[in-house]
Amino acid sequence: MKTIGILGGGQLGRMFIQNALNYPYNIHILDPDREAPCAGIAHEFWVGKLTDFETVYQFGKTVDVLTIEIENVNVDALDRLVAEGKTVYPQPHIIRLIQDKRAQKLFLKRLQIPTADFVLIDSPEALPAHAEFLPAFQKLAVGGYDGKGVKRLHTSADFAQAFTEPSLLEKAVDMRTEIAVMVARNPSGEIAVYPAVEMVFDHALNLIDYQCAPYMLQPHEQATVEGIARKIVENLDFVGVLAIEFFVTKEGEFLVNEMAPRPHNSGHQTIEGNICSQFDQHLRAIMDLPLGSTASRGYALMYNLIGEEDGTVVYVGLEAVLGRQGVYLHLYGKTHTRIGRKMGHITLIADTMAELEESLA
Amino acid sequence: MKTIGILGGGQLGRMFIQNALNYPYNIHILDPDREAPCAGIAHEFWVGKLTDFETVYQFGKTVDVLTIEIENVNVDALDRLVAEGKTVYPQPHIIRLIQDKRAQKLFLKRLQIPTADFVLIDSPEALPAHAEFLPAFQKLAVGGYDGKGVKRLHTSADFAQAFTEPSLLEKAVDMRTEIAVMVARNPSGEIAVYPAVEMVFDHALNLIDYQCAPYMLQPHEQATVEGIARKIVENLDFVGVLAIEFFVTKEGEFLVNEMAPRPHNSGHQTIEGNICSQFDQHLRAIMDLPLGSTASRGYALMYNLIGEEDGTVVYVGLEAVLGRQGVYLHLYGKTHTRIGRKMGHITLIADTMAELEESLA
């Protein structure tokens, strides 16, 4: 029986395992937290640092196929494993690219894929020269995650509070909305693109508040978005599931914002809302199995359950939530919560958008 | 965090856990086989005999809510646990009733629920007096499972090969087909009935070959079937999910064949084919949560994957299966197979019955 190793044992790994139990594979997890959501449900659970070369290398050597559920891992160890013949998906060069937001932007520019205007900032001294670029978002080159590592700079007065590490300054876009598209590719080159999902942000926490799928695109818009998704995965020789987030401008342009080379929060509604979930698709892709259908099964709305205070977790209102028809609860098994921490999500499905909106009222 | 204990750690427990991971509960399992499908994925896994009073009693004392995934358990221990205030669903009197096929038939008769004609047989000497009852099925009062404990008696010559233990003789029915209906009830008295599923048997192994849902019933037939399901769970004060199997006669009568007080093979297609799966529904019922919607999401066909020989398990044709659209694979993680052993199942979904039949071709 083949073993899949995952770097990271959070909720993405947990939902991956829930589905992977249907297949003839063992799942091994490496995570620094012995109480991570995957602890106790993986066939093997290793406690260790994801950024440590030796830890990642030793873990990787014991599995047949290695994948990730978080980008912040030691890529040098992955390079070594690949050099020794190990299968690592997505490939190390992709993870390295996506770890660095500046490299990601330069990659998009090189492929002539529309993305918001930007300048690279190496040090705080370089900022004042770009006052005309404001309002803008300053994004740290590395280490940003879940809304962290991003600052909005309104006027040049904000330069005093800017990040001092290498970053990029991205021109604020006049947005109609934000969407995400999941795309999968397997080693045989088969590609499957999911219908777009619209994301509605909670701007206080800079986290997705809720998201709705499918987001209806005109045929030419669909062609644009799908074309971009295919161009990216083909160019990267990508294997696995890739989440691509887009800004949709008031003028109707689709600008790639960011990418995540793995199952992603913006694809959680695929569990009940699409024939093949993002977790099943990722497994099929990395194991070189035929990809599943990305077709929607009606409409789906996904709502993140976010920690409201620090401490031991308490769930309130479980019965009220489950009393609604077509509601699916997904808690991540985290024993401790803190403000803004993703504790779970709820998916709501309906046959029509109108029904979905009715359920929300 | 509350703990749910399950007596039995087979595939039903495994699929229960896959869904239960979405809830804030710990799942503990008791099973005699340390390589059972639930081993390694339960929060606690106890190895011990399900028919041993002390084992079941000690296990039950450590959990908040106790349930089953197999009927062949020590019910005296459950009685003791209930007497001491423990929550056990389905309740011990129901498990005791269903362990005994004769008691089950007498119960149906008492409620005037249609069922095939039968006579109770206490010893082999009693058989010849019922030659006029043939052709008939002889069913062992206790211990039958997965098609075992049932013999077809064609003529009185077959009496020589009949079971010698206490049994019942059930008149063979001139059948149009067989269907099953899952019904759930929670302690608050809420009841939810699933659409019927049609079962197509493999008569060689006496196991379901494949099943199709929903099986379309006329409104008056739906009312009959649903009325029977409600009558049974209300009369038993049932809590949990109950599978009711029916013979549909050539005359269009619905005769209750057997019942199983738990998620059941005949409900596997509810995972992808209905809004709330039988496993989610059982969890909701025993935890006194609101029941989920039983509505169908299109059409679903479920096919059992049965062991073809004895030995270490080998899966053949995985890629061909997954290459079909709308196919879901569920393997049960059994390391050894034998002829006729349930190793997994496949569910196929489609929007229409015609599409489903097309996929089958």
Provide structural commentary:
Two copies of one chain form a homodimer. The first copy, chain A, has 361 residues and is of the alpha+beta class. Helices cover 25% and strands 31% of the residues of chain A. The first copy, chain A, contains ten helices and 20 strands. In chain A, strands 10, 11, 12, 13, 14, 15, 16, 18 and 20 form a nine-stranded antiparallel sheet that branches. In chain A, strands 3-2-1-4-5 form a five-stranded parallel sheet, sandwiched between helices. In chain A, strand 12 and strand 13 form a beta hairpin. In chain A, helix 1 (11-20) packs across helix 8 (278-286). Chain A is globular, with a radius of gyration of 20 Å. The N and C termini of chain A lie far apart (48 Å). The model of chain A has no long low-confidence stretch (mean pLDDT 93). Chain A binds chain B through residues 14, 18-19, 21-24, 40-41, 43, 275, 284, 289-290, 292-293, 297-298, 313, 315, 318-319, 322-323, 325-331, 333, 344, 349, and chain B through 14, 18-19, 21-24, 40-41, 43, 275, 284, 289-290, 292-293, 297-298, 313, 315, 318-319, 322-323, 325-331, 333, 344, 349.
